[in-house]
Amino acid sequence: MTTAQDLIDRSIPFLEEVKNRTAGGELESWLNERYGPGSELYDDLARMITDGVRAGWAANIEVDGPKYRRSRIADPSGALNYFSVTAVYMDSVEPYRGQYHQHPYGELNLVVPLDPGAKLMGPRGWSGAGWTAPGPGSHHYPEVKGGALIALFYLPAGRISYDITPPDAEG
To answer: What's the superkingdom here (predicted)?
Structure first.
């Protein structure tokens, strides 16, 4: 059985490799080319985080009922090159929006569809299995459609902001 520590330990060499890269389109392309589905890293992390969701130690805190859950697995630390590790579980056949938020320093996001047609809205549109990498200052609603998926994300300095007003809510 995979543990949270197993996932953290598997993440450390990856975070060492990306620690000086900036999230955005160039890094997203590189991640998908080098560590996309079928790569040892993607397959290991996808299996581990799926085990974690099923075992109840990942994405176990309801945000909007059982179909939208998240949890922080690790806070930023020297061992993680000051990235945090968080998991989100979303499940909706129809497009569903989660909590609007901002990424002050960007985000590296591993997308793991649990249902074959599940997709997550990323900076480049709807994305299935692979990586998204919203850049510093980006903000959005997390959106899912086509079924259940897990988003395993790494945040530089653990920074994420939920105290931002969505553009469609501004007066």
So the answer is: Bacteria
